[in-house]
Amino acid sequence: MIVVLVTVLYPNQEGSRFDHGYYMERHAALVRQRWEPIGLKDARFLRGIGTPDGRPAPYQVIALLNFSTADALQQAVAAHGAEIFSDIPRFTDVQPIVQVNEAL
C-alpha cells in the first residue's frame, strides 16, 4: 500500500522560464533513476493547461511522487536530494512548492 504522496508544484508565474523538454527527458528520468531503488513506487508528471473557467493554470507543472513509506521518502531525500534539487535551476527559475501528503 502506498502511504506517502509527495506533491511538487511549480507555480505558473508570468515571465517565468520552464524547459518542459529538459524536465521530462532529464529531470524526471533522474528522479526515477535515483529514487526507485529506494522506495519510489510511482511518479506522474502533469502539465497545467488552464482552469475550468478558462484562466491560466495556477501551476505549470505538478509532479506526484508515491513512496511506499515515510521512511523510504526520508532515505531517498538523504541519499540523492541534493543532486535532484540542484538540478531544478537547469529547467526553471521558479521555486517549487513541495508538500508531503499521507493517504487517508
Describe the structure.
- This protein is an alpha+beta fold and 104 residues long.
- The chain has one domain: Alpha-Beta Plaits (2-Layer Sandwich).
- It contains 2 helices and 4 strands.
- The longest helix is centred in the last third of the chain and has 17 residues, at 70-86.
- The radius of gyration is 14 Å and the shape is globular.
Unreliable segments of 5+ consecutive residues = none
Binned, the helix content reads: 25-40%
Spatial gap, N to C terminus = 12 Å
Q: Helical segment tally?
A: 2
Mean pLDDT: 95
Q: What does the overall shape look like?
A: globular
> Sheet with the most strands?
4 strands, antiparallel
State the order of secondary-structure elements, H for helix, E for strand.
Answer: EHEEHE
Architecture, according to CATH?
2-Layer Sandwich
- Based on DSSP secondary structure assignment, what is the total number of beta strands? 4
Please give the CATH class.
Answer: Alpha Beta
Radius of gyration: 14 Å
| CATH fold node name | Alpha-Beta Plaits
Strand order of the largest sheet: 2-3-1-4
Quaternary assembly: single chain
Class per helix and strand makeup: alpha+beta
